[in-house]
Amino acid sequence: RPLLGADVMSSTDCTSVTGDEAHLAGPAPVGSVRCAYQPGNKFGHAAFNTGVLYFRATLAAQAVAAAWRVMLLSVAEQDELHYVRTTEYIDDQLAFNRLIWHGFRAHPDGAVRGVGARGRVIRVLADSAESAGEQTVRGQVGEVGKRTTAPGWRSGWSHLVATARSSATRAASAPRPDWFDFAPLPARAFCSGHVYWVQQGGQRHGCVSVHTTFTEGGYAGKVYRLREAHLWLLDPPSYYESPHGFLTFTPPQLPAGVPLPPAINATASRRYDDKYSSGWLVPTALCSSPRLRAHLELARRHILALRDAIAIASMLKRTLILPQLPCLCDRSESPLVLPSCVSEVQPPALHTTLRSPRAVRGRGYRQGHRAASLAPWVITVHLEPQYSPTATPPHELRDPTSRF
């Protein structure tokens, strides 16, 4: 019910359920990374995702759709004759975000403003009588510091009215809205790929939907993750058949009862030492994060186990089923991850997936299997001595020029 007053709702790229629910604790000037759409937020990045969208049958929602359409149609991706982009490229998600970014903090106090007591719905200002004109897709219009109209808002409404007159709908005679109410869909229910697979280990919990964001490997990686969670229903029955049977293995695991090494070495230098002065070289990163060093040691053991499992499956002519591989470090698009080896959310357990599942799939190795068909053929591969979280990585991991 807290969402029923919104004209438009969308999923977000907020990977922190706690950050997404910060409005319950009251207004705060700074929001969490990608979650700074809470009432009172003046600072922080807010990222909205067009994977899941709802539009109510309101004039304000129609105005949003019309402005969004104008933004997308006003951009030519490239000049086909000269193979160069003629204007700034903008996709549907970036255009949608710009509509919200334009006005969700355009209130007099410069903060996000909630609608109602619950704070889940926020008001986005799109136009005003003091506007210096409609903002362009590039975000430039009129004098600097003057109020502007959201890109496509007036021109989109004009097109909507012209269309409405021909069909005699309500928009033909209605005044143009100056704002719309927007609700970011709860991250706990409309789950990102990070929440669903990394934080929840592929378990549904409270997820109503899952969008495969923050998933490595492109399209093949997304299908891989969906199969892993038994959410991919497009495979024919033949996918689950193998003339010579199946084989899988238990990969090296994290040691039970052994505390994880710290994410950050407090005594190590934090000075950037790459040639751009914006990151760390491999030796520095390993020294700065004992957990990253332990993660690479565990990954080395996974590679050895996978190598031998592939060899055994090949000799037996069985189809190899790839298991989940436990790991210690998160992989995220956020540059905040490397210093601590984890994202802003620390899940209880992390599981990695292969970087190029497409190549593995092409060689006859599969995942998303029916467990009942594998019961006689589950093996454990023990290749290495007892795992040590403080072990020094081998030369192949220390040398940034080496290749596996």
Describe the protein in words.
By secondary structure, the chain is of the alpha/beta class. 27% of the residues lie in helices and 12% in strands. It is built from ten helices and twelve strands. It has helices at 17-20, 59-73, 92-103, 153-167, 193-199, 218-228, 282-288, 290-316, 357-362, 395-398; strands at 8-12, 48-55, 114-115, 121-125, 179-184, 190-192, 209-211, 246-250, 319-321, 325-327, 350-352, 378-380. The strands form four sheets. A five-stranded mixed β-sheet has the order 2-1-5-4-3. A hairpin with a 5-residue loop joins strand 3 and strand 4 (121-125). Helix 2 crosses helix 4. The relative contact order is 0.12.
Q: What is the H/E string?
A: EHEHHEEHEEHEHEHHEEEHEH
Oligomer: single chain
Poorly predicted runs: 77-84, 355-404
Strand content: 5-15%
Structural class: alpha/beta
Count of helical segments?
Answer: 10
Kindly state the number of beta strands: 12
Could you give a short description of this structure?
It is built from ten helices and twelve strands.
